[in-house]
Amino acid sequence: MKLKVSHLTRYEYDREVSYSPHLIYMRPRDSALLRVNHFHFNISPDSKIVWTRDYYDNLLAWAHFWERSATLSIRAEFEVETLDTNPFDFILKPYAFTFPFEYEALHKFNLTPYITPPFDETQAILRNWLDEHFVDRPKETLPFLVALNTLVHQTLTYNRRYEKGIQPSTTTLALGTGSCRDYAVLFVELCRTLGLAARFVSGYLYDPSPDSAAYGAMHAWAEVYLPGAGWKGLDPTNGMFCDDSFIPVAHAAIAESVNPIQGSYYSPDPVPSKLAHSIIVEKIT
User: Which of 160, 181, 222, 260 is buried most deeply by CB count within 10 Å?
Assistant: First the structure.
């Protein structure tokens, strides 16, 4: 599938301010299943862009500003071709056919940041929730993951929160509601509690329905490491394995690590500000 994305974030202040270097996660993650055919930044005020890789090997841009301005505008426009039409096109290693399984020693070491379980108190709450709601657990690994993903999707009510940050997983369970990033963090922590390596993913989803959770916004989901298959995306917000409608940008063990735009502004006095954004994901025919 060929997709075109336009992502604009605009900050407005009531006077000119100075800006720290801004870290930007907006460029999609190239792979054998995703080709970035075009990418362009349009940033005002003028900035110097330095491309680097972070500790998760995500591609990120540092924007260095020299001018003061009352407006900061960051627009990313790109075209991609996604090829993951069948997310179940893999063969698990025999020891991972059924769950629970134990990762090989080398895999377990390399996966340490993604397999480390939550704090004991959080684990206890998650285990109690699983014992109450996830009773008839499939024995085979793939049906197990499908059932867990479906459970989270069907149990929670989606709410496009506009508050900053991510809810703790226990808060999401207590409220029974959350945004896509809250669903993703809950699913990641449930997987780690069960002994599965999992990580948070930020990106875009093509879903033209105005009622979609991803319509006009970035999207978040999870990836689980399966021996023989590698990292496989699961989206608990929509209750599905990730296919060619998904455009991953960045992944991390800690969700806040890959907030799309990270930076500060400076002023000798308090300055009121406004934030506006626009995200359009279109299919190219």
Answer: 222
